[in-house]
């Protein structure tokens, strides 16, 4: 589904991503874990065209997308749920969902998909006319995920979906990610909560200062001593 080869990203003189290579197979949940500043968000932003790669190659379903503009990736089947949710604060929940479907022309399909989102995220239905900026962090996270799903992506990138949420909501968000994947959407997940991320991931890559230092199946990295000490508080 996704292949990243020898990807380099610079911010001025800072070498943020150093020759990183990894892949995501169709139907997988793959997670990137690492400390703050390791390059996780930069990786997702380079993949989705939010920042430009300095060099390297990124392909989606075999099609080169390394220097493709972000908005052109949505019709190709990719969606990005950014860090910090980035909902349209002055628009209602329903308007946010409608904007998520901007690449879809069939109005009946959009209406049907909005109803599906309300079924998956009942709290959004209760707040369908409410301004998105007035909702809680957890509700905004659900809206950001639902908005991304409105484009019917084959692959979804998620950046820190559990950040700042109460433990009970963290549990709910991870259950929803598993459901989205079970419905056939491939997931690339960046997450500070390494423990929860590794529990649901098929495979994982560990980033340190812009380099991949470890990779393996999620369950194997959960029991890896190096990972336990560095990221799992063991």
Automatic annotation (TrEMBL):
Statement: the UniProt record of this protein carries the keyword Metal-binding: no
One family name in Pfam for this protein: ABC_tran
Recorded superkingdom: Bacteria
Ranges for domain ABC transporter: 2-234
A GO molecular-function descriptor: branched-chain amino acid transmembrane transporter activity
Keyword Nucleotide-binding attributed: yes
Matches recorded under InterPro entries: AAA+_ATPase, ABC_branched_ATPase_LivF/BraG, ABC_transporter-like_ATP-bd, ABC_transporter-like_CS, BCAA_Transport_ATP-bd_LivF, P-loop_NTPase
Example GO biological process: L-amino acid transport
SMART domains named among the record's database cross-references: AAA
Keywords linked to the UniProt accession: Amino-acid transport, ATP-binding, Nucleotide-binding, Transport
Family: Belongs to the ABC transporter superfamily.
Protein name listed in UniProt: ABC transporter ATP-binding protein
Species for this entry: Zhenhengia yiwuensis
Record lineage: Bacteria, Bacillati, Bacillota, Clostridia, Lachnospirales
């Amino acid at each position: 589904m996704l292949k990243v080869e020898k990807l380099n990203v610079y911010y001025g003189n800072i070498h943020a991503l150093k020759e990183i290579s990894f892949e995501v197979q169709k139907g997988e949940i793959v997670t990137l874990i690492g400390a703050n500043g390791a390059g996780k968000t930069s990786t997702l932003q380079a993949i989705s065209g939010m920042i430009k790669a300095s060099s390297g190659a990124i392909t989606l379903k075999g099609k080169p997308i390394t220097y493709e503009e972000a908005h052109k990736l949505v019709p190709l089947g990719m969606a990005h749920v950014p860090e910090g949710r980035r909902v349209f604060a002055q628009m209602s929940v329903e308007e946010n969902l409608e904007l998520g479907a901007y690449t879809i022309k069939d109005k009946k399909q959009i209406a049907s998909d909005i109803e599906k989102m309300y079924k998956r995220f009942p709290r959004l239905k209760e707040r369908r006319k409410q301004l998105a900026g007035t909702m809680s962090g957890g509700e905004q996270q659900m809206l950001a995920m639902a908005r991304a799903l409105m484009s019917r992506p084959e692959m979804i990138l998620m950046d820190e979906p559990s950040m700042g949420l109460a433990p009970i909501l963290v549990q709910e968000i991870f259950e929803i990610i598993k459901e989205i994947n079970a419905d056939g959407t491939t997931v690339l997940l960046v997450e500070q909560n390494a423990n929860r991320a590794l529990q649901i991931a098929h495979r994982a890559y560990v980033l340190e200062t812009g380099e991949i230092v470890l990779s393996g199946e999620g369950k194997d990295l959960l029991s890896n001593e190096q990972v336990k000490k560095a990221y799992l508080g063991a």
